[in-house]
Write the structure tokens for this entry.
Amino acid sequence: MNSLENQPPVFEKLVLKALQLKQQIDSTLSALQGDVKSIRKYYESRAEFSRWRQSADGQTWKAEKWSMQKERCAECKCEIPLKGSHIDRIKPLSKFPTLNLTRSNLRITCPECNLRKSDREVDPSSC
């Protein structure tokens, strides 16, 4: 015998409504957990890059790459100072997270070119 059978109809409606709300909450929670994973993945790559960029290895790489590029922006070819120049990804992090610290995917650009490029991919033959 079902325990709801002996309850008033109002109580039964409340229980059914509560079960529906629980299903909605569970569904929303599941979607939010997926969002959290995506956000963490996005920021973990950026944090890893930031730590490398500030390390001795990252600073050395930047100076060497800047020198190899003849102290010029890889995009517009203008002369740029090392300080204030950007490390840019040829294939953007948003589309190629596994290339986050792949040296062959990195180049030095002026801030204007890097910000203008945003998350577009660059033709590697132009680098």
User: Anything to note?
Assistant: Residues 5 and 12 are 8 Å apart (CA to CA). The radius of gyration is 26 Å.
